[in-house]
């Protein structure tokens, strides 16, 4: 795959890697088209934040949301790409409204490549979004659903993993971090901004996201362990087990907060013996902002506050009911690189679900019950 697309802003001379968009060269088309998946498989549909409503033109905001729903991709990610590439069509840079950019390849508000191929990336993924009989890369009514279609294909190839899909859009980790950070600001509840369930899981009828992080249910079955998927693990880490009753919770948290597992069930690791604990780091730990936007965001949504410090548990720490312990900034051996610096400290966030077996370090059979966050097909808002 090849073919880098430069954004309109960079074509105008802005020297930043964050303003570069890559639309990959021609790749094999998949048969995933709008309507193939049921609406309930689209994952959480985040409502726009005040920031989104005030900074995105109303026509573009509606188009992002419609295209996201149609192609089962997070509309917030489409909006973030549109912001970087053309300021939602408002940029006066070459190639945004006519012609091609300074690199001679790309056009429109989503900066599709018109010259790779044949067929070009635009020719491969273009959509007549407004049903006027024409596909126009400069028309947001065509360009935005076309970008959603392309992102859908990338998501399918990446098994529903949005970080890898955006990396397919542009081979820059900095670009990915910028897109995901912007996307979080566009959702009324940031933890819902990046949810996108893999097509395979939707097709199998798997449960949806948690209905409310503040709810908890005691779950007794299935009393067994399940293997985390390879994508859930931090780079170089082999897949590990987790209590099967917590798998849906864990995968949703990993996707929504852009986190990866460094330790799940393993012997000799305090609280990790019964498969109800995870050690986590950002999927793209490029800087402190990445930690704050992922690990810190999750810790806070689980009830952690700075006063938790060296406790990490109730009553000092006002955790949500399903959580037994959250270890982050201020807890010895835990936290972001800001407080937990190598080589003396391995930065990470630790979370443990409530169970009567909490604290064991020796590998044990699954506990009699665990407290899980109930899952469903809708998500309530909470900040």
TrEMBL record:
CDD domains: Slt35-like (cd13399)
Pfam families in UniProt: SLT (PF01464)
GO annotation terms (biological process): peptidoglycan catabolic process
Ranges where the Transglycosylase SLT domain occurs: 63-186
A single GO molecular function term of this UniProt record: peptidoglycan lytic transglycosylase activity
PANTHER family: LYTIC MUREIN TRANSGLYCOSYLASE, MEMBRANE-BOUND LYTIC MUREIN TRANSGLYCOSYLASE B
Protein name: Transglycosylase-like protein with SLT domain
């Amino acid at each position: 795959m090849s073919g880098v697309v430069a954004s309109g802003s960079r074509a105008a001379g802005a020297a930043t890697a964050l303003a570069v968009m890559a639309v990959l060269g021609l790749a094999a088309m998949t048969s995933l088209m709008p309507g193939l998946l049921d609406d309930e498989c689209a994952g959480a549909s985040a409502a726009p934040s005040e920031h989104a409503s005030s900074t995105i033109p109303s026509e573009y905001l509606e188009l992002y949301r419609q295209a996201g729903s149609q192609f089962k991709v997070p509309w917030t990610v489409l909006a973030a790409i549109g912001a970087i590439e053309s300021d939602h069509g408002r940029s006066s840079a070459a190639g945004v409204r006519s012609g091609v950019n300074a690199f001679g390849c790309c056009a429109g508000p989503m900066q599709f490549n018109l010259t790779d191929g044949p067929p070009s990336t635009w020719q491969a993924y273009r959509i007549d979004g407004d049903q006027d009989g024409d596909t126009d890369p400069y028309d947001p009514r065509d360009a935005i659903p076309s970008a959603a279609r392309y992102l859908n294909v990338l998501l399918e190839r990446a098994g529903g993993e949005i970080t890898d899909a955006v990396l397919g859009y542009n081979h820059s980790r900095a670009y990915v971090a910028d897109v995901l950070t912007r996307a979080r600001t566009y959702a009324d509840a940031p933890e819902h901004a990046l949810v996108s369930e893999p097509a395979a899981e939707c097709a199998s009828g798997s449960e949806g996201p948690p209905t409310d992080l503040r709810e908890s249910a005691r779950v007794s079955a299935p009393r067994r362990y399940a293997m985390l998927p390879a994508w859930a693990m931090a780079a170089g880490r082999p897949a590990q087990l987790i209590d099967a009753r917590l798998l849906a919770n864990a995968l949703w948290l990993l996707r929504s907060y852009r986190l990866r597992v460094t330790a799940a069930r393993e012997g000799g690791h305090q609280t990790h013996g019964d498969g109800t604990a995870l050690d986590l780091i950002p999927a793209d730990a490029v800087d402190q902002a990445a930690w704050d936007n992922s690990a810190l965001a999750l810790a806070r949504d689980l009830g952690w506050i700075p006063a938790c410090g060296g406790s990490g548990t109730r009553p000092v720490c006002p955790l949500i009911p399903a959580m037994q312990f959250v270890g982050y900034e201020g807890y010895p051996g835990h936290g972001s690189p800001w407080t937990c610096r190598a080589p003396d400290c391995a930065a990470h966030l630790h979370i443990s679900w409530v169970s009567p077996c909490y604290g064991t370090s020796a590998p044990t059979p699954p506990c009699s019950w665990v407290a899980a966050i109930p899952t469903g097909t809708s998500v309530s808002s909470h900040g």
